[in-house]
Amino acid sequence: xxxxxxxxNLFLKVFASRSATVHEEAMLVIGxxxxxxxxxxxxxxxxxxxxxxxxxxxxxxxxVCVVIVGVLGxxxxxxxxxxxxxxx
Length: 88
Hints:
By secondary structure, the protein is mainly alpha-helical. The protein has one domain. The protein contains five helices and no strands. The chain starts with a helix and ends with a helix.
């Protein structure tokens, strides 16, 4: 995907904000990006993983947790992506 690096970098910067709503929306976009990119998305997992983990641990903002679980489900359903990110 031609602009994937720029898109991903911008959305990773979004996580610096304190808004749970913005985090939810960013997760949804990143989930769609992961779906479109397939196994090529694995190159972003090292950086993205810390935000996944942080979001799952932030149970006070349960809507973010729900979205993250959905995004992870979308990533893991794609068997090609699953094989490349199993490390995480």
